From TrEMBL:
The chain crosses the membrane at residues 40-56, 77-97, 103-122, 134-154, 160-179, 191-212, 224-247, 254-276, 282-301. Coiled coil: none annotated. InterPro entries: AA-Vitamin_Transporters (IPR050638), EamA_dom (IPR000620), EmrE-like (IPR037185). Keywords: Membrane, Transmembrane, Transmembrane helix. It comes from Streptomyces desertarenae. The lineage of its organism: Bacteria, Bacillati, Actinomycetota, Actinomycetes, Kitasatosporales. It is a multi-pass membrane protein. Pfam families: EamA (PF00892). It comes from the Bacteria. Residues 5-148, 160-297 form the EamA domain. This is DMT family transporter. The keyword Transmembrane applies.
Amino acid sequence: MSTGRGLLFLVVAGVAWGTAGAAAALLYRASDLGPIALSFWRYVGGIALLLAFLPLRSRSRRAVPAPAAPEPRRRRVARIVATGLGLTLFQTAYFGAVQETGLAVGTVVTLGAGPVLIAVGARLTMGERLGRGGAAAAAGALAGLAVLCLGGDGATVRPLGVLLALLSASGYAAITLLTRWMGRSGSGGDPYATTTWAFGVGAVCLLPLALAEGVLPQTAADPLRVLVLLAYTAAVPTALAYALYFAGAAVVRAATASVVMLIEPVSAAVIAVVLLGERLTAATVVGTAVLLAAVTGLAVAEARAASGARRAAGTGATSPAAVPGAGGAGGGAGA
């Protein structure tokens, strides 16, 4: 897959993830379903949808030759289990952070710490580094995120909530770095299969917590509305979004991918204003504009660096973009 297509996949995944908050808000209004039970049903529904499309996918891939060196079974199992556990930690700790310290602080700490942890991890494990341009774009994106989420009133910082948010960011960083590392080694596996099995691991991990919380809603004014919202949550911000995310993160440098995914709160903010009737504030406008500008600049720099690497590979020349871990075009605008 080309870097440009990988970036597109990440953008679509981020926008889709942003709709999950609106769907969850509507579900909470229509029933007493809790956040852990909702995550459990997201995984179960995502698995069902992915398996339903399995026969169609198998027919479309018959002409594709098998890889010369298939991934060893033990390594594949370890990768899938690690991805599923990281995914479960990411979501569950985030919900706990939001419950403990509020949505604004929980979101800023989780999504703000994620790119930092990923940048450090990618530098230490894969030699990928932020150049001056990439560091400036990442800083701009984090500033926009802070303005977007903390621009309102009533933000409360509680130590336990911050610790849970950092734990969530660690899970997010782990699955991003693992996906990128496997993609670089050429043994990242099929994103479709990875997503399906990771959802299975997540569902098993969340089942005891969901049972304790209440896995089925006890009250629902409109059961059909609840089913429709659950189906949407399983289909778009879960099955589709995670499959695109795993595919894109395998070919885009790790820290770049994490900053691009900050488009998620922008999508959530726009939906909240347009569909849920929330008030449009100056902080929403400024934060959205700054964050989008930074993400766009970083994505353009990543695409240019990848294009330079392809040209260098075609001519046999050595350029900074062609050397793993070197800065991209213009001083390393990627991660």
